[in-house]
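Retry 2 of 3 after timeout on previous attempt. Resubmitting structure tokens to design endpoint.
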């Protein structure tokens, strides 16, 4: 199986950005680990990060032509604002899992609403980088 992991805005700063909230691993550390996990399970994992909403929409569209079985997405702050990313995920009709490193429900109320959750197969929050791995393992099964 082929899984696409998408990281939204500011996640390129992982490891430096508010490590008490988001952990000390860099995005490269996380992506490398996910590729190893996917390979161990006999599949592949592509990763993508952008700070730009339109680029994220384009990447989701592109997945339609790539035999992607599942998307794992942490849309960062766009989770709480982006009808466009919601529509892109609905449009390509590839099943997806929503991941957040932090427990968004413990935080500001503006982080409690997601434009993606009701379309997602599942949502993982608050487990740090392990949330991506758990989502990937589910998607690979
Ligand atoms: C986040 C939570 C969002 O509210 C925030 O804007 C992020 C990261 C998380 O992984 O915990 O950028 O998606």
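Retry 2 succeeded. Sequence:
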């Amino acid at each position: 199986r082929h899984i696409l992991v998408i990281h939204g805005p500011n996640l390129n700063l992982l490891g430096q950005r508010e490590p008490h909230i988001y952990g000390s691993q860099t995005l490269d550390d996380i992506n490398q680990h996910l590729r190893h996990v996917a390979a161990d399970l006999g599949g592949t994992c592509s990763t993508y990060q952008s700070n730009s909403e339109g680029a994220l929409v384009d990447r989701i569209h592109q997945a339609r032509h790539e035999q992607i079985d599942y998307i794992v997405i942490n849309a960062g702050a766009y989770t709480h604002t982006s009808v466009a990313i919601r529509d892109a995920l609905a449009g390509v009709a590839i099943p997806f899992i929503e991941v957040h490193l932090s427990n968004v429900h413990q935080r500001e109320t503006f982080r409690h609403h997601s434009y993606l959750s009701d379309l997602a197969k599942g949502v993982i929050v608050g487990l740090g980088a392990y949330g991506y791995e758990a989502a990937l393992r589910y998607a690979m099964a």
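Attempt log closed. The beta strands are 2-7, 44-49, 70-74, 96-100, 122-125.
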